[in-house]
Specification:
This protein is of the alpha+beta class. It has eight helices and 23 strands.
Length: 473
């Protein structure tokens, strides 16, 4: 029996109250359950991704030609070739520069015009014997195509540690040495690659000071301390309750390298008015992070007055035949029964009496059904007539009820899972929250003096992808 217009959460609560209906002729039930008090939240994991601001880094690595020129002018000019049989001195000019990103790397690309002087040692003196491209960048110069790949590791205090390698150096335009007419390009490739790799560690150390991700992390950390409305109709709020954070590696996010940080949290779901936000500062970065998935258990409750109303709507008026006569339900009331819940039913027809039925619930996850074990009932007010009917009809009636006490809830669980997943995918102030609910199961049913409670468990993933502007250059 379904109500139109109800959310998945509301429908599921209604269905749980209709266990007594479990088809057209179920009478009543009671369910053993643990206390409905919200248990301590188990640790959960989620990941935040912060785009690395490549603009200042691209500008920094785009100056490699100038940096190498300054390095060469302040050191030895002649490069010894082979075993000292020859010497080379080169001159480079600024050329075309650019940068792209590829997965988790920054690729700095440049075209480097160069000129070369070639010399040999004659009578103990280095003597130039040939040259090419020494006058200016447009006359006789060769050209190199150079690519430097920079990867990133995460350092302490939310910093980045770049590590660069020369990915490629190719001669794309010859530089012909005078007289001999020999192309100096292949030789220049080797010398330039060696010199460029030599300066990269210092360039990386300087780049490490250009970017800090802590302001972006702090923004997201504050976002995660705000209650998130999951279901407006049921007033369900998710409290992420972040506790700790650790590095989770660098990966691509929309084609741009992004630093991942794993957040350990103790999430909970509450129903009612919006809870108060927390204001904990960003903690120090832990050394490690283990992604155990995002999971949360929570309890939804229906006030007893509302529960009884739904119960009566579900069962009053139902009737069925036992073969020797019909039985009709004319009254139904929920009540606590120690660690169980009871439903008192008033029957008319063949058996004009009041029953109290009890049974132990068992959730069959593979079948998506609530089953009941050890079903039995007692008569509230016994008379000679009820005793006589009981003697003949107790076992057939008990078996009839036991066979009918089976409640399919997979559809309702799926609807609720979809509603929760929709609530986990939303725009935030600093980016986009994206979550999945891979599993939603019913954990317990409980009736207390004031309410009926249904406890659920979820498992899935949760990510927060920060907007690029959150980490400005």
């Amino acid at each position: 029996m379904k109500r139109r217009g109800l959310s998945g959460c509301h429908r599921l609560l209604s269905i749980c109250l209709m266990i007594v209906a479990a088809g057209a002729s179920t009478i009543a039930s009671s369910f053993a359950a643990d206390s409905a008090a919200q248990p301590p939240a188990n640790p959960s994991s989620m990941t935040i991704h912060i785009p690395i601001p490549v603009t200042p880094l691209a500008e920094h690595y785009g100056n490699l030609t100038r940096t190498l020129s300054a390095h060469r002018s302040s050191g030895r000019e002649w490069v010894t070739l082979g075993k000292g049989s020859g010497f080379l001195k080169y001159r480079i000019w600024p050329g075309e520069e650019g940068a792209t990103t590829a997965a988790d790397r920054l690729l700095s690309q440049s075209t480097v015009p160069f000129g070369v002087e070639y010399a040999k040692q004659i009578k103990g003196t280095i003597t130039k014997i040939a040259e090419c491209g020494q006058r200016d960048a447009t006359t006789g110069t060769g050209r190199l195509s150079v690519t430097v790949a920079t990867t990133f590791r995460q350092g302490r205090s939310y910093t980045l540690l770049p590590a660069s390698q020369v990915a490629a150096v190719e001669s794309v335009q010859s530089c012909l040495l005078s007289d001999q007419g020999v192309d100096a390009g292949p030789l220049m490739v080797q010398v330039y690659r060696s010199d460029l790799q030599e300066i990269l560690p210092a360039v990386d150390r300087k780049a490490a000071g250009l970017v800090t991700l802590k302001p972006a992390v702090a923004h997201i950390w504050n976002d995660l301390q705000e209650p998130l409305l999951l279901d407006e109709a049921e007033s369900l709020w998710l409290l992420v309750n972040p506790e700790a954070i650790g590095p989770a590696g660098v990966e691509a996010l929309s084609g741009t390298p992004a630093a991942g940080y794993g957040v350990t949290a103790r999430p909970s779901v509450v129903r009612g008015t919006k809870p108060t936000s927390r204001h904990l500062p960003v903690p120090e970065l832990h050394d490690r992070f283990q992604d155990d998935g995002f999971h949360v258990g929570f309890t939804l409750s229906v006030p007893m007055e509302e529960a009884n109303q739904r119960l009566r709507e579900a069962v009053i008026g139902q009737e069925w035949s036992l073969g020797v006569g019909t039985i009709k339900i004319v009254g139904a009331t929920l009540y606590p029964l120690g660690n169980q819940v009871g439903i008192e039913l008033t029957l008319r027809g063949l058996l004009p009496l009041t029953l109290r039925l009890k049974g132990t619930p068992d959730y069959d996850e593979s079948a998506g059904r609530i089953l009941f074990r050890e079903v039995d009932y007692t008569i509230k007010d016994r008379t000679p007539a009820t005793d006589l009917a009981e003697e003949w009809l107790h076992e057939p009636l008990r078996e009839e009820l036991a066979g009918r006490l089976s409640l399919p809830i997979r559809e309702e669980l799926d609807l609720m899972r979809q509603a929760l997943e929709k609530g986990l995918n939303r725009d935030m102030r600093g980016g986009r929250l994206r979550g999945t609910v891979s599993k939603l199961t019913l954990d317990a049913l409980t009736v207390q003096a004031a309410s009926l409670s249904v406890r659920f468990k979820t498992a899935g993933t949760l990510h927060y992808d920060a907007r690029a502007e959150l980490t400005p250059p």
